[in-house]
Amino acid sequence: MMIKAYRYIKARDAVMRGIFLFCAVFAVLALGCICVFLFAEGLPFIGKVGVSNFFGTKWHLDSGAYGILSMIVASLYVTGLSTLIGIAIGLFTAICLYKFCPAKAVNPIRQLITLLAGIPSVIYGLFGMIVIVPFLRDNISSNGVGYGILAASLVLSVMILPTIVSISLDALNSVPRSYYEGALALGATSEQSVFKVMLPAAKSGILAAVVLSIGRAIGETMAVIMVIGGSPAMPGSLFQSVRTMTANIAMGATELSGDAATALVSTGVVLFCFTLLLNTSISLLKGGFKRESKSA
After folding, report:
1. pLDDT digit string (tens) for 209-250?
2. How far is it, in rounded angstroms, from Cα 243 to Cα 234?
3. Are residues 97 and 241 in the same domain?
4. How many domains in the chain?
5. Do 108 and 188 reside in the same domain of the chain?
6. pLDDT digits 0-9 by tens, 259-295
7. C-alpha triplet 211, 233, 120: angle, nearest 5°
8. What is the rounded distance in angstroms from the CA atom of residue 181 to the CA atom of residue 85?
9. DSSP reduced 3-state for 61
10. Within this chain, do residues 25 and 92 fall inside the same structural domain, yes or no?
């Protein structure tokens, strides 16, 4: 009887190991297929049209101009501004929920913020197009244009709030409470204990929230398309119709063919390289933070 039970447990463990191995291999293969597709299609096209042409400032498919520099700049502006706004609001919200909010209100507020993650992107875009764009056009814009970088950044900053608030709050809660109590015992105020002790101790988790937020912002498409305008012009103002790399791919994916469609794949290569560079940089920073904490 014991031998049968042992054989059953051993067979079950082998099956589970096989399932886990399959899932891991599938994830790696999926990433590999995407990389092969992007680089096999995109890199030869960049070499064909020339690096100076592909990274130029003009995007005019009829004349063979495939410059995406303006879209790269627009993507960086939108991602950077939305991340700054989202981090400022989200981090202070997490700090408030962590220490300065009544205990009974923490969970309801957190659940309401989490609900923002379940709203479809097109709803955010519709809200931005109907509410934010007219407000900017009528009250803030100096040229009478509401579409542009600021409108897209405001919409994206709301979309990334759940990520920043949830992960930052978890990072703060994971710091031992003795850090906070020790700071109070040394004479620090509650605010000083949170901002000068707890925040630095939770910086690794907060950095992870920032990374995920940047990835969400730089990869968002539908909401951005609806409020940014769509003109492939070099950004010169916050209130100007521009186009990001993701918007460029989505706007032409179902309409273009031939070299024009391949140019969209090449744009995806650049976007993929940006994401890879971002993840690598953040991994190096996190490694540096861990070494600092160990040495301390």
Report:
1. 888 888 888 888 888 999 998 888 889 889 998 999 988 888
2. 9
3. yes
4. 2
5. yes
6. 888 888 898 899 888 888 877 777 776 666 556 555 5
7. 45
8. 31
9. helix
10. no
Q: Is the dihedral of CA 284, 289, 293, 296 positive or negative?
A: positive
Cα separation, 281 vs 90, whole angstroms: 22
Do 14 and 148 belong together in one domain? no
Indicate whether 77 pLDDT > 90. Answer: yes
Domain limits at 10?
Answer: 2-49
Per-residue b/e over 209-228, b at no fewer than 16 CB within 10 Å?
Answer: bbbbbbbbbbbbbbbbbbbb
- Position 54 in a domain: no
Structure tokens at 32: 């590999």
Maximum alpha-carbon separation in the chain: 84
Task: Please give the Cα distance from 41 to 267 (Å, whole number).
Answer: 11
Residues 110 and 19 in one domain: no
Neighbouring C-beta atoms of residue 126, cutoff 10 Å? 15
| 178 within domain boundaries | yes
Q: Own/partner pairs for 37-43, CB < 8 Å, 24+ apart?
A: 37/265, 38/265, 38/268, 38/269, 38/272, 39/269, 41/262, 41/265, 41/266, 42/262, 42/265, 42/266, 42/267, 42/268, 42/269, 43/266, 43/269
Ramachandran category for residue 256: left, alpha or beta (phi over 0 → left; psi -120 to 50 → alpha): beta
Q: Which amino acid is at 235?
A: P
Closest CA to 97 of 88, 105, 85: 105
Q: Which of 23, 219, 3, 15 is nearest to 121 (CA)?
A: 219
Mean pLDDT on 164-187: 89
Query: Is 69 found in the same domain as 44?
Result: no
Coil vs helix vs strand at 148:
coil
Are 45 and 151 contained in the same domain?
Answer: no
Closest CA to 226 of 160, 140, 131: 131
